[in-house]
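Hmm, what's this shape?
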Amino acid sequence: MTGLVRALAAQYYTDPSVFAVERAGILARTWQFACHVSDLPGPGDYVAFEVAGESLFAIRGRDGIVRAFYNVCQHRAHQLVEGSGTTRSVVCPYHAWTYSLTGELRSGPNLKAVVGLDRSTICLTAVRIEEFLGFLFVNLDPEAAPMDDWFPRAREELSEWVPNAAELKPLEWVEIDERCNWKVSVENYSECYHCRLNHPTFANGVVRPETYDIQPQGMCLRHTTECQSLDRMTYDTDSGFAHSQEYSSWFLWPLFSFQVYPGNVLNTYHWRPSGPDTVTVWRGWYSVGGADNEAVRRLAVQDRATTVEEDIHLVESVQRGLSSRGYTPGPLVIDPAGGVNSEHPVMHLHRWMREAIEGEEPQQRRAFGR
C-alpha cells in the first residue's frame, strides 16, 4: 500500500441525510441482531424489535421453526404486536384480522362478504432470519448471502471458544446511551490504538496490549491477543474448556460483536443507531440457563464502570470534534505489520462503508458527496 489513507469526511458522521441513506441501504441489507432463541422457547412466543427504522417481530411456530415478519397488518397497516409475549394466533388490534403463526391470513370480521377475496393470497411479509449459536439475526434483503458467507469461520471459532453456547441464556443486559454516530462507536471498538492510554483496567488486567491485533475475516473483524497473568483476574478462569485462558472477539459488520473473556465468559455488544448522532449500545452477559452467576455479574459491573465509561467520554468528544469547522480528516496510522498501534481495522471499516455506498442509487450517493 502506498500513500496516506485518510479518515472519512465528517459528514459521514454528522449529516442527517447520510444517516437516512444508511437506514435505507447498509442497515437494511446487512445481518442485524433480533433476539436470543431463549426469548422464544415455545410455540406462539414472539418478540418485537426494530431494524433500519422498520418494526419487525420474530415468532416460533407450532412446527418449532422461528420466523420473522414485518410488524404490519396487510389490511390497513396497523402494527400487530408490541414487546414480547405468547399468542395462539396473531390478531390485529385494529379490525381483528387474524393470522396463523406462519403468517397466513386465517379470518377477519365479515370477510365472507368480500366478493372475490382469496384469503390464501394474503399473508404477512416475511423477513430473512438465521440462528447463529443461539442468536437470531435478520436481513431485510431477501437476496442476502447466508451469515457463514459474510463471516467465514466465525461460527466454528466461536463454537470452540464457547463450547456450551447452546446452554447459555442472557443473564444481564446493560444499556448504554452514547451521544455519537454509530460509526464513531464502532470504530472506537475496532481499534486498540487508544487502549493503553485510556483503558488501564482492560490493558493492564485482561489483555497484553503489545500482542493485540485485529484482522478482517470476511466481513468480520477478528480480535486476538495474549492475556495478562490471569492471577490478576477477579474470578476463577479455569472452566475446563479449551481456550479458557484466552480473550478473543468477533465483530460482525456492522452492528454486533461477540467477546469471550478468560474462563469462556461470553458477552456481546449490540449497537442500535437511533439518529445521526445517537446510538444505544446493549452489552449482553450470559450464563448457563440464565442462572445467577456472581463472577459474570461482577464482570458486568467492572466493565460498565471502566472500559464502557471510559469509551463514552471518548466517542462523545469525537462526535463534538466532527462538528467543528476546524477539523480536517487526518491520516490513519496504518502499520503494514498490523498490531495494537495500527488503525488498519478502521481502514477496513471505511472501505466497507464506501463499498456499500457504491451500491446505492445515484441520488442517494449525492448525500455522500459522490
